[in-house]
Amino acid sequence: MAARLLRRKALTNLSAPSSSPFSKSSFSVQRLISTLVLGEHEGGSIKAQSLSAVVAAKFLGEDNSISMLLAGSGPSVQEAAIHAASCHSSISQVIVADSDKFTYPVAEPWAKLVQLIQQKGGYSHIMATSGSFGKNILPRAAALLDVSPITDVIEISGPQLFVRPIYAGNALCTVRYTGSAPCMLTVRSTSFPVPLTSANSKSDVAPISQVDPSTFGEDMVCKSKYLSHTSQDSERPDLGNARIVVTGGRALKSAENFKMIEKLAEKLGAAVGATRAAVDAGFVPNELQVGQTGKIVAPELYMAFGVSGAIQHLAGMRDSKVIVAVNKDADAPIFQVADYGLVGDLFEVIPELLEKFPEKK
Questions:
Q1: pLDDT of 136-182, one tens digit each?
Q2: Which of 88, 171, 213, 242 is 20 to 30 A off residue 5, Cα-Cα?
Q3: Which segment, 50-54, 87-91, 199-203, is predicted with the most confidence on average?
Q4: Residue 128 and residue 53 in contact, taking contact as beta carbons nearer than 8 Å
Q5: 24 band by pLDDT with thresholds 50, 70 and 90
Q6: Confidence band (pLDDT; 50, 70, 90) for 203?
Q7: pLDDT tens, 236-280?
Q8: Percentage of residues in the chain with pLDDT exceeding 90?
Q9: What is the rounded CA–CA span in Å between residue 359 and residue 316?
Q10: Cα 189 to Cα 298: distance, rounded to the nearest angstrom
């Protein structure tokens, strides 16, 4: 724990001095800040990551008017709109684009939609989470609106002042936005958790507005084509929101051996994660990758087996509350950030844990 505390104290805070010529914004902050949140939905419900973006938007200002934009086709998007209108007290409006053009979350039509909504609504901020959805859409929409987005925000100090990690999380950079409106952000959902009292506790229902399909012209035809979507059917919790994550590295040597990680996760009711090396070796699909180029997680308990602790991996899990590492290399970098470490052979440790842990009820 001491090593971990020292590491966190060593983080560098890079910020412009108060006398900087860029301390004054080139656009005046509106008295009533308004934010458009790009919402993800699945099966008629809003994903938890999108609610984290709503929580983040509240840090922009107390009088912030937050609208959530949903796009899709058919009953699913309408059900998601009803859920969004009542799931969080901070959402003041839900905007729905129901069209066959949005059957799949392809970047081109979504970016054009954001541009159209911004031209009509004149929002001061547009926000999405730093997942594959937000990273795919927001930069393209920012290009259409001729603004520069700020990515991976972990702290919001004001309407134009943000903190984001750089150098794979080894330093923190304070950024002051000085461009024209809208200020476009992606935020890490792990840095803005949704309080249990906020979700599904709204007494009144936000109004739902439908976007006129006739506004979607021929110029919204995208150059990319949706092919397919593959996912694993599992009762395990989602990796990005799980309380416990069990991760395996390349030291497991094969996909067959990686099943030990899955069995341990099932006993603990945990999500399964993997290093990039394990993903590249074909042990598991890339949707389970944790790290700078994978998913950013911050569970209450993170268990790493055969994970060396490359800087790219640490960037995706270093904010975990408790980190447990098992590795036969006593000098592995993972032990520098671990709260508890065990130098041992994972092929001996995991079977013993499976024997000791009771079955999940």
A1: 999 999 999 999 999 999 999 989 999 998 887 788 999 999 988 89
A2: 242
A3: 50-54
A4: yes
A5: very low
A6: low
A7: 788 888 899 999 999 999 999 999 999 999 999 999 999 999 999
A8: 52
A9: 29
A10: 9
Residue with tokens 């902050």: 29
Which of 111, 101, 118 is closest to 143 using CA atoms? 111
If one counts every other C-beta atom within 10 angstroms of the C-beta of residue 132, the result is 13
> What b/e readout covers 294-305, taking b as 16+ CB neighbours within 10 angstroms?
bbbbbbebbbbb
H-helix or E-strand containing 267? helix 255-268
Sign of CA dihedral 250, 256, 260, 261: positive
**48-87 burial code (b ≥16 CB/10 A, e <16):** bbbbbbbbbbbbbbeebbbbbbbbbeeebbbebbebbbbb
